[in-house]
């Protein structure tokens, strides 16, 4: 499919949802805490994506980390002084901790040194699932948004690559202060915003349209437009598309394309389809429709795009 013209980028986990590294890191601390589980050869991956003209985006899960959180005092603690865990029994590191921030930046620098030119920080937030009332944070300085912004500012200064952040879809509409996600503030330090706008994750009354497809369309169109309003003109908006059937009444190619259509109509900078099982069989047809619609959209809207660029 890489040579079909239907896709031009891939997102690969370099630091997983559990916190371990999926490539052969040579850093001392990940090895010390047994957080290296090599799944692929990074040099070969970079070579193959370059060969097929694919942009390679390294997904790096930040503060949900079952390995570093259990090392020394990097983890968030509960009111009994024990490691706090979320409802999936996962531990989290403390975003206020400079040692945690430095650990993530060192990993990112190593990845970039191998020729990866784009990174996407995920779980770049505080935890919200589980018995959060028992959380006792240490080294607190400023708000939670301040902590996340400090990390991203440091990353911006030290990492020579495209930096993106994956954020909750609702953060486009309201700052999520408990999570530490305020896109207007965080957008000062990133190149790409990846909002997770999955229709299944919004309440049913949000953009309550007559049909599921139109609801999907307006969720993406309005959310992308709202994001542009809050971000500097240089920041790209590349939403995640729901490529899975959760809470969908009629999941299929039409369901997927209606989301793509909303992004393209709002003049978003692209999209990424997400399926936890990496099953994209339903999505290829929708990608074909999206590809075929782009020349017509460009011909009709190039003047408007130019005007938007000048306005922004």
Description:
- The structure is a single chain.
- This protein has 312 residues and is α/β, with parallel strands linked by helices.
- It has a single domain (9-311), classed as Glycosidases (TIM Barrel).
- It has 8 helices and 10 strands.
- The longest helix is centred in the C-terminal third of the chain and has 29 residues, at 283-311.
- The radius of gyration is 20 Å and the shape is globular.
- Residues 305-312 have low confidence and may be disordered.
Distance between the first and last residues' Cα? 35 Å
Question: What is the CATH level 1 assignment?
Answer: Alpha Beta
Under CATH, the topology can be stated as: TIM Barrel
Q: Supply the number of helical segments.
A: 8
Radius of gyration: 20 Å
Count of DSSP E strands?
10
Helix content: 25-40%
Mean residue pLDDT: 94
Strand content: 5-15%
CATH superfamily: Glycosidases
Q: Uncertain runs with pLDDT below 50, 5 residues or more?
A: 305-312
Q: Specify the overall morphology.
A: globular
Series of H and E elements: EHHEEHEEHEHEHEEHEH
Strand order of the largest sheet: 1-2-4-6-7-8
Q: Indicate how many domains the architecture comprises.
A: 1
Please outline the major beta sheet. Answer: 6 strands, parallel
Q: Given the helix and strand composition, which structural class is it? A: alpha/beta
CATH architecture: Alpha-Beta Barrel
């Amino acid at each position: 499919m890489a040579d079909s013209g239907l896709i031009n980028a891939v997102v690969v986990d370099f630091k997983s949802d559990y916190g371990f590294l999926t490539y052969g890191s040579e850093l001392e601390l990940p090895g010390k805490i047994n957080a290296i589980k090599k799944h692929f050869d990074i040099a070969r991956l970079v070579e193959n994506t370059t060969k097929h003209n694919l942009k390679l985006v390294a997904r790096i899960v930040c503060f949900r980390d079952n390995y570093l959180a259990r090392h020394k005092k990097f983890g968030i603690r509960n009111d009994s002084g024990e490691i706090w865990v979320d409802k999936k029994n996962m531990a989290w590191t403390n975003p206020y901790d400079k040692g945690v921030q430095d650990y993530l930046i060192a990993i990112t620098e190593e990845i970039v040194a191998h020729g990866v030119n784009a990174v996407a920080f995920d779980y770049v937030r505080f935890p919200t699932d589980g018995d959060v009332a028992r959380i006792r944070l240490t080294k607190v300085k400023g708000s939670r948004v301040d902590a996340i912004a400090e990390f991203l500012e440091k990353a911006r200064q030290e990492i020579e690559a495209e930096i993106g952040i994956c954020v909750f879809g609702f953060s486009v509409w309201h700052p999520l202060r408990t999570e530490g996600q305020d896109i207007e503030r965080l957008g000062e330090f990133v190149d790409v915003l990846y909002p997770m706008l999955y229709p299944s994750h919004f309440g049913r009354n949000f953009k309550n349209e007559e049909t599921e497809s139109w609801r999907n369309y307006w969720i993406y169109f309005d959310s992308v437009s709202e994001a542009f309003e809050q971000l500097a003109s240089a920041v790209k908006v590349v939403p995640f598309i729901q490529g899975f059937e959760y809470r969908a009444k009629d999941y299929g190619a039409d369901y997927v394309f209606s989301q793509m259509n909303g992004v393209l109509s709002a003049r978003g900078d692209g999209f990424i389809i997400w399926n936890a099982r990496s099953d994209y069989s339903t999505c290829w047809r929708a990608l074909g429709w999206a590809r075929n619609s782009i020349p017509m959209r460009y011909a009709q809207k190039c003047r408007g795009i130019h005007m938007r660029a000048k306005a922004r």
